[in-house]
Amino acid sequence: MEFFFYGTLMDDDVLSRVIGRRLPPDLIEEATLRGYQRVYVAKAFYPVLVPDPEGTLDGLVVGGLAPVEVERIFAFEDDGYTAQALSVTGARRGETLAVGFMPGDGMKMTPRIWRYEDWRRRHKRLYMQRIWGKA
Q: In a 3-state reduction of DSSP, which class is residue 105?
């Protein structure tokens, strides 16, 4: 199973905390998703995807995970999100299908665009403290 990460799981520190190890670079591929945009979830530091016919965003395709690591990712994304197969374009291999997490019923979002670099600079430290009690 491969995943498309477009938010906080793009960060190596967050991903390694969730799955319990740092992944080797050959299991991670830069990728692009068309037809969507990232916006902030209401009252949160993390994003959700919303349809946008003109939208294009960068993320990561990650594969080669053990079953327990897959379980940890699903637990991390919790009931607020719904897993869905997305067609993404990988930098090395082109078009591929990967599981992405879409907003679940009742998830509230803002119109504010979420940018990974802004999150890393402004929110990562506090996010890591809130989630795991340390930066």
A: coil
d(CA 36, CA 55): 5
List pLDDT tens digits, range 28-46. Answer: 999 999 999 999 999 999 9
Instruction: Report the distance separating Cα 107 and Cα 128, nearest Å.
Output: 22
Give CA–CA dist 19/73, Å, rounded.
Answer: 7
pTM of the model: 0.93
- Sign of the C-alpha dihedral computed for residues 114, 77, 68 and 19 taken in this order: positive
SS3 56: strand
How far apart CA 71 and CA 74 sit, in angstroms, is 5
What is the rounded CA–CA span in Å between residue 134 and residue 85?
33
CA distance 134 to 25: 25
